[in-house]
Structures are given as C-alpha cells and as structure tokens.
Amino acid sequence: MVVQNRLRLAPVIALSLIAVFFVFGGADAAEPTVITLTQTGCQFVEIEGVDHGFKTKSAADCKAINAKTSKDRLAKARRLS
C-alpha cells in the first residue's frame, strides 16, 4: 500500500520540480550579471573607482579611516547592480 501511494505521487513531484525550474531560472532566464569585487584595506575598489591605498592592521584602523573619510567617499561611490 505504501509503495503504491509513493508511485502515485511521483508524477506530481516531477511536475512540481519542472515548474520550479521554469519559474526560478529555467530555460528562458536571462544570464546572470557577475560583479567582481576587489577588496583592499577598508574598501571595495570597484565601488569607489580608485584604490585609496589605506594601510591597516586591524578592524579598528578601518573604523578610524571610515570615521574620517566615509562621508566624502560615499558621495563619490557608485551603485553596482
């Protein structure tokens, strides 16, 4: 009895998986956009467009650098999508 019930569910499960494939990235889905990020001390180069060359040894260094420079750097940064 249990085997028969499982066999009856097999087509339903298969159709569900096919539906998920087409809804969430099936054959007609556009190619994904890949964004490569280069992380250096306290920054991602591609977002800011320049490597500031910050010298850091700890997270505290980044906190201090960001406290001094974040407003100006955020104003110049570009949004990636």
What would a concise description of this structure say?
This protein is 54% helix and 5% strand.
- Structural class, from secondary structure content? mainly alpha
SSE sequence, one letter per element:
HEEHH
Q: Report strand order across the widest sheet.
A: 1-2
**In the residues, how many domains can be counted?**
1
Portion of residues in helices? 40-55%
Mean pLDDT: 77
Residue fraction in strands: under 5%
In terms of quaternary structure, the protein is: single chain
Number of DSSP helices? Answer: 3
Number of strands: 2
Radius of gyration: 25 Å
The biggest beta sheet is recorded as: 2 strands, antiparallel
Shape by Cα distribution: elongated
- The residue ranges in which pLDDT falls below 50 over 5 or more consecutive positions are 1-7
Separation of termini?
53 Å
Report on the architecture of this protein.
The protein has 81 residues and is mainly alpha-helical. The protein has one domain (2-76). The chain is 54% helix and 5% strand. The protein is built from 3 helices and 2 strands, in the order H-E-E-H-H. The chain has helices spanning 2-23, 45-48, 59-76; strands at residues 39-40, 43-44. The chain has a two-stranded antiparallel ribbon. It is elongated and about 60 Å long. Mean pLDDT is 77; it is low at 1-7.
